[in-house]
Specification:
176 residues, UDP N-Acetylglucosamine Acyltransferase, domain 1, alpha/beta, six-stranded mixed sheet, 2 helices
Length: 176
Amino acid sequence: MSISAKIADWEREKLRKAWDPGRRLIQTIRRFQALRGKHGPVAWIARNYWRRAHQFWSVITQNEIQLTTKIGGGLLLTHPNGIVIHPEAVIGPNCLIFNQVTIGRGKAGPDGRTVPVIGGHVDIAAGARIVGGITIGNHAVIGLNAVVLSDVPDGGVAVGVPARVIRINPVPEDPA
């Protein structure tokens, strides 16, 4: 069974056990974002609760993922330690991000954007750095400690410093 790059698999984010820091952190972001635009004292209290919970889980995991970051459903933070994601970056659905990954601002791309756009079902290995106004295609794989400074096509496997695409895997057809 292939994982979709377009349709979020929300089961991936469900809590599996009491101590599940990566999923707890994502839960705080989801709950806070669900309350944006809601008014009244109950919404205000709930937003503040989830903001404080986010601060707690950010300290526990030592991650910097802002409450306003655009993250598609089904994100997995397998070893949630030291992950930094720029608040303007966009993460597609069903992505997998390992520890010590940085997704940040850098050189502007052709469209003037200075932060990455990560496609759906992208696996980002430990220590990878994805910087600048680049696009990572759907079903791409970013290798260990890779420094990605240029676009990666759909199904591309990027490794090295600076990263280069060493292979393009066949992209599975998305169930629609």
